[in-house]
Amino acid sequence: GSGIDARDQAPELYPYVRAGFAACTYSLDGPKPEHPTNAQVFEAYDKFRTAGAGLLNAQRAMDFVTARAPMIDRERFFVAGHSSAATLALLVAAREPRVRAVAAYCPCLDIMAFNPQLGPVLERFRPGGEAFLRENSPMTFASEITRPPVLLFGSRQDQVVGVARYEEFRTVVTAAGGQVRLVIVPTGDHYGAMVQQGIPEGVRFFQSVVAGMGQRRAIDRKSGV
């Protein structure tokens, strides 16, 4: 995957650590240079597809934490991501049973609508590519998110992904039995809103999930479960 610069990650990781969480960052298969050739783009796509649109990378990160950090409570795996990583976080919510809660900041919910030209071009050179994009688009698998609660955060001033389908996404998830806490703030760009407003919301969200888990454990002990 792409290299990880801890200094670049600090604004997105340290708030969780300061709140008492352990934080692990990981990269996805399929890196590409700053100015990639077509061949490099397709090579990156092939690796990304093999990794299940990043799901395998998330699972390996959890495996790593489980093996190397036994002091971390494996019953409290949370996933957070911003932008394309938020799109992946929602995929993890749908497909990985170890995850107990997810915070998705400014995700793209409809990949095909976000870049209408991408699907046909990809299909031309990689048959099945259009279906791959559609299958891994949150609006497609929203009804599969039935277990972990989700924080969906967005800004009305986000000029990159926008929030046009956020309400619809929440409706689909809740109709399937899932839980979505939708927070849409009036100001802030794609990155700034996430750092300044989204992550604090995410920290509070995860803390509320932990508190709820503690209450359930207390009830189980009283009932003898």
How would you explain this protein's 3D organization?
This protein is of the alpha/beta class and 225 residues long. It has helices at 6-18, 38-50, 55-68, 84-95, 111-114, 118-125, 129-135, 138-141, 166-175, 192-223, and strands spanning 77-82, 99-105, 150-155, 180-185. A 4-stranded parallel β-sheet has the order 1-2-3-4, sandwiched between helices. The radius of gyration is 18 Å and the shape is globular. It starts with 5 loop residues before the first helix and ends with a helix. The mean pLDDT is 92.
Structural class: alpha/beta
Q: How many angstroms does the end-to-end distance come to?
A: 43 Å
- Main sheet: strand order: 1-2-3-4
Task: Name the quaternary structure.
Answer: single chain
Q: Please report the total strand number as a whole number.
A: 4
Largest sheet: 4 strands, parallel
Helix and strand succession?
A: HHHEHEHHHHEHEH
**Number of helical runs?**
10
Poorly predicted residue ranges: none
The percentage of residues in β strands lies in 5-15%
Principal-axes geometry comes out as: globular
Rg over C-alpha atoms, rounded to the nearest angstrom = 18 Å
* Mean of residue pLDDT values: 92
Into which percent range does the helicity of residues fall?
40-55%
